[in-house]
Amino acid sequence: xxxxxxxxxxxxxxxxxxxxxxxxxxxxxxxxxxxxxxxxxxxxxxxxxxxxxxxxxxxxxxxxxxxxxxxxxxxxxxxxxxxxxxxxxxxxxxxxxxxxxxxxxxxxxxxxxxxxxxxxxxxxxxxxxxxxxxxxxxxxxxxxxxxxxxxxxxxxxxxxxxxxxxxxxxxxxxxxxxxxxxxxxxxxxxxxxxxxxxxxxxxxxxxxxxxxxxxxxxxxxxxxxxxxxxxxxxxxxxxxxxxxxxxxxxxxxxxxxxxxxxxxxxxxxxxxxxxxxxxxxxxxxxxxxxxxxxxxxxxxxxxxxxxxxxxxxxxxxxxxxxxxxxxxxxxxxxxxxxxxxxxxxxxxxxxxxxxxxxxxxxxxxxxxxxxxxxxxxxxxxxxxxxxxxxxxxxxxxxxxxxxxxxxxxxxxxxxxxxxxxxxxxxxxxxxxxxxxxxxxxxxxxxxxxxxxxxxxxxxxxxxxxxxxxxxxxxxxxxxxxxx
Length: 483
Fold this sequence. Notes:
The protein is an alpha/beta fold. The chain has helices spanning 47-65, 104-110, 114-121, 132-142, 144-149, 156-165, 172-176, 190-196, 218-224, 238-246, 299-309, 315-322, 363-389, 405-415, 427-439, 461-481; strands spanning 3-9, 13-19, 25-32, 44-45, 70-77, 83-85, 95-96, 152-154, 169-171, 181-182, 187-188, 205-207, 232-237, 253-258, 262-268, 280-285, 288-295, 333-335, 353-355, 394-398, 419-422, 453-457. It has a seven-stranded mixed β-sheet. Strand 14 and strand 15 form a beta hairpin. Helix 1 packs across helix 6 (156-165). The chain starts with a strand and ends with a helix. The model has no long low-confidence stretch (mean pLDDT 95).
C-alpha cells in the first residue's frame, strides 16, 4: 500500500483521510471540538483541542495503514482563524473563528471610507468581520493588552504545523484570506499590516501550497507513530481544496458545499475580482484562482430546525419527514439568516424569517422550507458568479448535505442544473492529498485525482416550474426585509 493522507481542519471537526493512488479512501479518522460563544458576537475555540484532534487522527490513520506506507501528509484548514501567541508559542486567548462577529463595527466603519474600500477589494476578501484584518483592528481597541503581548499572529493551520515540525509557515491561499495579503504581488501588504497593527516578523513565512514544510519533529513522529521522514505538505484552504477534490477546476465546473456553513465556488485561470466586493477571490496555485461566495447558514439551519421543532428525531429522520411535504406555488418561504450572513448579503446583523405561515402548515412544511431557504440563498450566490466566471456547466456537491438525497434534489430543481455527488464527499481532505501528490511529482500541476460520480440528480421539470417563481419571491423578500 502507498497512500497519501489529507488532514482537513474544519470548523467543528477534523477529518484525517488516507487515499490510494486512485483517490479511493483506505482509512480515516476524525474528532470534534466545541465552538464557544461566551459573549455576544463571539465564536471561539481552544486551538489546543483542535491540535489534539489532528494528532489523534494522524495516530489512528497511521496505525490503520502503517507508517511506512504513508508517502506524504497534506493539510487543509478553514479560513479566517486568528490566534495570538506568546513567546513560548502558547495562545494568549481562544482562537477567533471565521464566525466571530465582534469586529462588526470595525468593518462597518471601514465601509464608510471609499479609498479604504477600494484598497481592500484588491485583496479579494469581502468587507466583513470574518476577516483577520478587522479582527486585529478590533483587538487593538478592545484588547490592547493582548496585542502588546502577542509575539506571533497565526491561523489554525500554522499553529498545528508548528506543533508538528517547529516552523511557522502559511500557504498563500490561507494568507490571501487574511486581508493582509496582496494577491497581485504574492506577498504581505505593508500598508495593510500597518492598518492591522502587526509586523512581518509576527506573521508566518509565506509558502506555496505544494511546499514541503520542515520535517516532523522526532518526538512528534514517535508520538504519532509516523516515519520522521514523512513529507508534510503545506496544502491550502478548505474551499479551494474542495474544488480540487471534487474535480471542479475547469470552466463552468461549480462546487457547492454545505457543512455547518456553505459556499459556492468556481476556479478561474487568472486573477479576477468582483468590483462590488460581493465575492471572494483566493489563490490556489499558479493559474488557479478560486472565486465564490461563502454563506453562514447551511447545516446549522437544519440543526436548529431539528432542535426546535423535532428534537425526538435524528437528522436523517428529519429529512425523511421533510420529504413528505411538496413544493407549492406561492408557498411557505424561509430566509435562513440565523447566524447573520456573508454572501450574498454581507450583513452580519441579518436575521431569519418564515414568511407565509398558515395554520395548515406542519412540521414537515417548516423543515422543508428551511432546507429550501438554504438552497435559494446559495442559488443567489451562483447568480453572482456567472458574470465573472461564465455560466455554470455542472454542479458538484460536497459536505454533509451531499449525503442527503432530498437536499441534492432541491439543489438540482432550484438551480435547474444537474448535481453530481462524488464517491468521496471529503473533498477538502482529498484536495489536500492532491496537492501533496503534486508536490511529490506524482500528479502534474493543475490536475487532480479521480473522484468518480456516485450519484447524479437531474432537475425535475415539475419542481423547476414551482421553484422558479419561488426563487424570485425569495429574492424580493430578502431585499424587502434587509432593512
